[in-house]
């Protein structure tokens, strides 16, 4: 019996160690891209904070010292990026780390080079990171691309799915909802979050204007993916072919569509004006907002993270 328990513990630690491994590969890649191009320093700062935060709340916690390992590298990192070290124990990231990797790729390749952006992310995942089902720490599975229209080569806005395990993922959705996303996306997600049923008193779901593109792709093979039932409920997205869906284990707002549409709505005034939203009054909206913030506080206290409401990290 004891032997079996010890084996299980060993196996558990071995799986958890993929957190450290992926964290180090992602941070090193970001540092290299920043050094080679001189671009994206704030994204490096943001991702270090976000990874340190997720290390702190991981089932097997990882300190920055354990994640980085090499002492010399740690000292240099702290010199160049002191703030993530100062704030990872008090401030919550506004989005998941892989969003910073995605933004870096968009910055380096240019938003119009969709294929190159997708391929670079796929290569990073397939060649370097552990992505087996229970070892997929910090890795997004899906990317989404949105455009005002597919004509005239309009600007592309990207988003990735939450790159964290079940509990951290719920934290990141609530954090993005309270701090990062466009209000329409937050309203839609708040309609169903933290519960998975629609609130009786609030419906902030949206319907995008005709012609808007919102396409998701699997990051391991770049095959296109239909929006899941949750995204269809939130954003009235259409599926190409009706498919039987298995059980959905992720929370509302977890998918790449949320971040991508948020970026579109923040930047394309015309799309925002033509987007239809169900009506609600401001008191009910506040009540829904409070419910998300309360859930965030609860989730953080469950993982023993001391948090002062609204302390989100700004790189
Ligand atoms: Zn979805």
Automatic annotation (TrEMBL):
It comes from the Eukaryota. This is Uncharacterized protein LOC108900371 isoform X1. It comes from Lates calcarifer.
């Amino acid at each position: 019996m004891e032997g079996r328990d010890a084996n299980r513990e060993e196996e558990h630690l071995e799986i958890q160690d993929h957190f450290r491994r992926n964290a180090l590969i992602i941070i090193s890649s970001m540092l290299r891209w920043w050094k080679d191009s001189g671009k994206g320093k704030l994204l490096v700062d943001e991702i270090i904070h976000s990874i340190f935060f997720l290390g702190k709340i991981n089932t097997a916690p990882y300190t920055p010292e354990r994640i980085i390992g090499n002492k010399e590298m740690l000292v240099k990192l702290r010199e160049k990026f002191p703030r993530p070290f100062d704030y990872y124990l008090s401030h919550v990231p506004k989005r998941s780390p892989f969003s910073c990797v995605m933004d870096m790729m968009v910055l380096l390749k240019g938003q119009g080079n969709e294929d190159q952006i997708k391929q670079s992310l796929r290569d990073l995942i397939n060649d370097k990171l552990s992505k087996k089902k229970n070892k997929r720490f910090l890795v997004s599975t899906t990317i989404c691309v949105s455009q005002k229209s597919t004509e005239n080569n309009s600007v592309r806005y990207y988003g990735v799915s939450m790159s964290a395990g079940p509990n951290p993922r719920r934290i990141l959705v609530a954090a993005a909802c309270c701090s990062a996303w466009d209000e329409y996306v937050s309203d839609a997600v708040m309609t169903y979050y933290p519960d998975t049923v629609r609130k009786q008193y609030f419906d902030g779901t949206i319907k995008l204007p005709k012609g808007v593109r919102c396409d998701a792709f699997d990051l391991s093979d770049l095959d296109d993916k239909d929006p899941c039932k949750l995204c269809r409920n939130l954003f009235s997205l259409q599926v190409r072919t009706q498919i039987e869906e298995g059980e959905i284990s992720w929370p509302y707002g977890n998918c790449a569509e949320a971040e991508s549409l948020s970026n579109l709505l923040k930047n394309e005034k015309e799309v925002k004006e033509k987007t239809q939203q169900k009506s609600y009054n401001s008191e009910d909206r506040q009540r829904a907002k409070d419910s998300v913030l309360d859930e965030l506080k609860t989730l953080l206290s469950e993982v023993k993270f001391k948090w002062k409401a609204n302390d989100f990290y700004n790189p």
